[in-house]
Design goal:
- The protein is an all-alpha fold.
- It is globular, with a radius of gyration of 22 Å.
- Helices cover 77% and strands 0% of the residues.
- Helix 2 (12-44) runs parallel beside helix 8, helix 3 packs parallel to helix 6 (118-134) and helix 4 runs antiparallel to helix 9.
- It comes from Monoraphidium neglectum.
- Keywords: Membrane, Transmembrane, Transmembrane helix, Transport.
Amino acid sequence: MLRMAADACSRPLLWVFIVAAFLWVVSAWSIYVWIPIIVSNLLNGSLLSDATSVGGGSRNSVQAALLSAIPYICAALSLVAVAWSADRHNEKTAHVAIPVILSGITLSCFGVVGRHSAVGAFVILTASLGLAFAGQSTLVARAAGITPPSQAGITLGILNASCTALGGFAGPVIVGAIIGALRSFEVVALVMGALLIAAGLIVLGVFVKEYPQFREERRARRAADGVACGGRRAADEEAGGGCAPRAGRAGGTLSGAATA
């Protein structure tokens, strides 16, 4: 086990994903934890100007609880949708990077929109959380593919120990400190948005570096599908159907199935 852990730690790509995942956890989990308070302050009209109302009032507690469920539901749906798309297109890296970058950009607009519309701020919050968590499971699958399948458990253990434990603790604490010092969630949104963008750009850099290999693998799969399709065409046409693509394709480097 120690040998497998040492082998996983010796792979630079794993540390690239650890850095990206840490930034993601610090920002995305912070928003995730603070959503009920943010929504409560939106209902009280005090989000951007009055830190004394952090936590909200009891008169809006029921509405805040109900509204807080909406971003979580959107996050769950987007996670499933992106995982399905990543599997369908046999590509994981860009499916992680793009939603995270868009989430950071969206969250950075929270303060500007919140000054004019509480509804708009809630929409921004919901969209940002949905995009931030859209690639969560895909990120885990991509990171697990850095090492051989027999070492996937060790790899994910290292990732979780480095990112989830530390980032999950540090993120909410950082948010609380900023709110306590600056009396506003607007700066928090800018900081966390910047961290999300940075995390997404790191993963996008991996995609850009590996894209030529991914393109060649995709061409090879299409060529293999064309050969198989030609061999089955007569039988398919006789049965009254077309030549369907083959199922169960093996993943390439960007899908996380090959080792780095």
